[in-house]
Amino acid sequence: MPQEVRLVRAQLAQSLHDFASARADFDRLAAERPDDLAVQLGLAAVATVTGDYRAALASCDALTATAPELIIVACKAPVELVRGGAERAYRELSEQSRRSGDASPRLLAWVATLQGELAASMGDAAAAERHLRGSLALAADTYTKVALADLYLATDRPALVLELLADQDANPGEPAEPGEPGEPAEPGDEAATQSDGLLLRLAIAQKRLRLPAGAASASALRERLAATVARGDFTHRREQGLFELDVEGRPVEAVGLLLANWELQKEPIDALLLLRAAAAARSPKAAAPVLAWIEQHHVRDHAIDRALAELTAAGAPQ
After folding, report:
1. What is the reported pLDDT for 187?
2. What is the average pLDDT across 203-227?
3. What pLDDT does 267 receive?
4. How far is it, in rounded angstroms, from Cα 108 to Cα 162?
């Protein structure tokens, strides 16, 4: 198979959450093209989302001789976020951004999104909002919109979610047009998944604000998520779990979905949602896989720390 075809196949598998197939193709491509930016960034992204942090860092290091330092630091940032190095990664990204004024807007937008995620992890909501809004000003994409909407929900500002997603609110029954992709493409950043993600955040905000429009958003989501299951697509359990938890108010169902999701992907948001669902279901034992992951990798994250406190309270004697 030609290498370019294999690369496209790997990226497609990544977008469909078929991480095993994507990893196999990226591994083979990396052996053949060790200096290829798209290959190593794709491999690093898949390795990170599946929890293979050593492989992710190795892919980033493979680019040291050929890629700008800004890209190397950005490549490593998601791993640092998980392994307690958010403050260091944030400082390094900020410094490299200042030195890279000639970088493309898409690259700077990707970096700004990473800075926003790192700042949120450290509990600096103001800095996180500034970076995420800056990223959207450079290159609007749905991944960053979802991250900003999550920040507003986490800081109890649902009205700002409505402002952010005003175009989504206009027609909740139809998928939104995808924004320009970041650099590189985010794992699972396919248009249908991301538009569902935006509508899901909108529905949560509408429910918190007790708006009548929330019923239409919830109904549209219910139909979309049921359709994915009906066609045998079980790769969007994160969205299904969040829907059950924060829209339907069924934490027990959410726990089952989010445990299955944890088998597939292990990003901080996946850990956070499972912790929240386990606490809401008053089932602390369900969070055992996430607790082991936190201990193994020395995870430090503001939102996860709060969820851990809620989980501890949920397990306390009544």
Report:
1. 36
2. 96
3. 96
4. 26
Gap between the Cα atoms of 194 and 239, Å rounded: 10
pLDDT of amino acid 316: 58
* Number of Cβ atoms within 10 Å of the Cβ of 5: 10
Topology classification of domain 1-67: 1.25.40
| DSSP code at position 211 | -
d(CA 196, CA 246): 14
The CA–CA distances, whole Å, from 219 to 50, 192, 249 equal: 31, 16, 14
Q: What is the pLDDT of residue 171?
A: 52
The mean per-residue pLDDT over the stretch 156-162 comes to: 98
Structure tokens at 152: 């507003």
Q: Considering only 39-43, 108-112, 216-220, 312-316, which range has the smallest mean pLDDT?
A: 312-316
* Backbone angles phi and psi of 23, in degrees to 5: -65, -40
Locate the domains of the chain by residue range.
1-67
Identify the pLDDT of residue 315. Answer: 79
Comparing 89 with 180, the larger pLDDT belongs to 89
Whole-prediction pTM? 0.90
Which of 146, 157, 187 lies closest to 46, judged by CA?
187
Q: Extract long-range pairs of 173-182: CB within 8 Å, 24+ residues apart.
A: 173/216, 173/220, 176/142, 178/141, 178/142, 179/139, 179/140, 179/141, 179/142, 179/145, 180/106, 180/139, 180/140, 180/141, 181/141, 182/106, 182/109, 182/110, 182/113, 182/139, 182/141, 182/143, 182/144
